[in-house]
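Q: What would this chain look like folded?
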Amino acid sequence: MAINFYDIAYGFGVGVSAPVWIIRSKTRKKVLDAFSLRMGHVVSRTEERPAVMIHAVSVGELNAARTLIDELKLRHPMLQLIISTTTETGYERSKELFGNQQDVILIRYPLDFTGAVTRVLDCLKPSLVILMELELWPNFIAQCWNRHIPVVIANGRITSSSFRNLKIGSFLTRRMFSRISAIGAQEKTYADRFVALGSNPDRTVVTGTMKFDSAPTGSEVMGTSELIRDLNLRHPLWVCGSTGPGEEQIVLEIYRQLLPDFPELQLAIIPRKPERFDAVAELIRQQGYDCIRRSDPVSWNPTSAAQQRPTVVLGDTMGELRKFYASADVVFVGRSLVDLGEKQHGSDMIEPCALGKPTIVGPFTGNFVEPMNAFRSADAIVEVRTPEELKEAMVRLLREPGEIGHRAKHVVQQQRGATQRTLDLIEPLLTVSTHPSP
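A: My prediction, written as structure tokens:
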């Protein structure tokens, strides 16, 4: 067996960093869980029918892939689908969406050690691999190449920092990019970056973002009425979704400032990461509010004398953000007001916009360049730079929301179609890979 440079590098990295992750309990658990769950120990697929593997790192990529998955099943009912995720929240979301479907296999994406990748590909034998956005690992791509398994990037994007880093290491990564069978990029800037890194320009096309396709534009979201009833939500309702560290504090202070002029205003906060639920609940209480947790609404006793304070709803369950958005009068989309690092610049503003909700975002929305350009051009979203501007925007939208929500919904309807363009891109590869010549 040939010596694999990447395996050596990965092993060296784990060893060198061991003193750090062993000492830190949270990091230690994360590393050990990865080695326990992502070393490719999966149950072998016994069926002879062809299979397509779709990899989505976490919840955002998985939500974007939903329409693609549905269309693949519709066009090719004999296909078996293998859906892999990296994060724990992504895996839990995949179980919610596809756990009861017999033609879907759920796995955790293997670590990029040759042994782990080989076990997954040998056991599951995919005919085609679709990677959402940008999740390229050299051993995985090489093993697919050796097995003649086409690899497609769907909804592809490369941030400016990732592009710079990949360019620096292009002597190592150029071959990897040249082995990609097809790339559907969200916009031309991303497509040009893929080509500059070594992708075939004839197989790199702009398809748009599939997140427009996966956001329902109907006025009703299943389960919304139950959510409103269970939490006794009232109007006007301000929903702050996918918030990150530092933003909840800002939102709670603005809420305090708004209450004198809008005494009926209800606030609901839905943090991005489940591991922060307890910390945010404690922050809400520290700020002088009562906290109603979605996971345990009966624990809040409105008859208690202590319940004279304003209440804040904490959305601490998975898969209900869309219901909160559907209940809202105004939405703030988090991870956009506080700079949490380029990889976390912005959360999905398309969902509330698709529901026709007046939507506010901060200045850090780099992960949603194309959607933001579309909303900006139609004056269909409110951008703020500071907490003061967020408060001003809230006052304006609470008093007179205008037509901004209607314009946002119209933008989403106009931008649909990326899923079909992506399917057109992969269909020739799918046909070839699932119907081999005799």
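The first strand starts at residue 51 and ends at 55.
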